[in-house]
Amino acid sequence: MGKRKRRQRYSGPDLTEHVDLNPGDKFEITLGEMNDAGDTVTDIDDAPVVVSGGLPGEVVIAEVQKRFPERIAAKVAQVLEPAAERVEVECKYFLTCSGCQWQHVSYGHQLQLKRERVQREIDGYENLSGVAVDLTVESEKRLRYRNHGRFTIGKYENAGQVGYKNMVTRQFVRIEECLLMDEKVNETIALVQDKMGGQTQMSIRVGANTDSMLVQPRMNISGLNLVTGEQHYEEEVRGSRFRVAASSFFQVNTGQLSKAVDEVRELLELDGSEVMIDAYCGVGVFAVLISPYVKRVVGIEESASAIEDAGLNLNGATNVEFIEGKTEHVLADWDQDVDVLLLDPPRVGCHPDVLDSVKKLKPKKVLMVSCEPAAMARDLDLLCEGGMYKLETLRPVDMFPQTRHVETISMLTLQESRD
Ligand SMILES: C[S@@+](CC[C@H](N)C(=O)[O-])C[C@H]1O[C@@H](n2cnc3c(N)ncnc32)[C@H](O)[C@@H]1O
Fold first, then answer.
1. Whose CA is nearest to atom 4 of ligand 1?
2. Which of 43, 307, 313, 336 is deepest in the core (most CB within 10 A)?
3. 107-140+249-414 — its CATH code?
4. CA 249 to centroid of ligand 1, rounded, Å
5. pTM
6. d(Cα 207, Cα 210) in Å, to the nearest integer?
7. What's the CATH superfamily of 26-81?
């Protein structure tokens, strides 16, 4: 997953002014289809009513959270007629903190919804339609899988408290623990709860497979045995150790990252002769773990801290080098043969110049790892335009159980000669 896109404000007509539903009001509703945000949408008098915590077809009592010109936001308060896929929710903050969308959905159905989401995006493009999306690769840990938590510190009467900000109401929600977080993150919350006066945010990163951790910002809380403000921490993936700076990206689900590396390697069917570029390489996880199976790997990354980490993360590999720069610039200047190109861009997807360079360099295999299905489908379509590449595989990997988010690995093969 990469940088967040800035949310665009709605600037269309007021679609809800004629509907008499206000925050706190409760009303009975039959829930409509699921949207890409993981909520259901039902029209009441032509006004979209978006309900969190439900499933299509359920009859519920919903409670209005907030009115917007483009929608009325509500959450399920009571289920009158449940869907077959509904399960008991374990977390007491569900629908209060707004971090999870699908704690009420059986895990099998979550996997199916993610697969359907990817299929919908792909089917919107003529060059891609007809490709069947594989089953979603499930996460062994369905809870406590996150190695990284970003928390809000309360203000005024909540000063010093650790919690989350509800994304709909923008209200602060104090938490004692988050069921998505690694145990060590929750232990740290327990240590600092109520003691964070003067701070606005807190980040806790832990090694799921190491004892290393990183708590930001630097604080001096008297009587606490907690090191804060460190510059790096370490994580282990498939037996290799990776240093990660405070400002470097690292996947939040270490277990699924290992599986994603395995999936990538399996899909590429490498024979050891390949020159591979790992574009958007972060601290070098894919580059280093795939290096034993290819001749040479070149990682490209724009973040100075991540590229410094990557250089220290070789784990003995002698066929890997890293280039600091933007993928669109480095690939535009690239003049050597590339057999395999791995693209793992941020949420916005690839810069158009990257896709132009792919068509110029013509790697035999292009593998994309993407956390945003819409951007992925758009980029894959451009690569398949004119028949130069063929989409062979689409495989969702569940990096983020209990949420609507989906990571997808896609593989394209070159359909023409490289000369
Ligand atoms: C989704 S992360 C993938 C990181 C890595 N592949 C991994 O799995 O750990 C995307 C990475 O791309 C980097 N990035 C963003 N835009 C970039 C660009 N235009 N060129 C090169 N790197 C970029 C970010 O700093 C981030 O490390």
1. 282
2. 313
3. 3.40.50.150
4. 7
5. 0.95
6. 5
7. Nucleic acid-binding proteins (2.40.50.140)
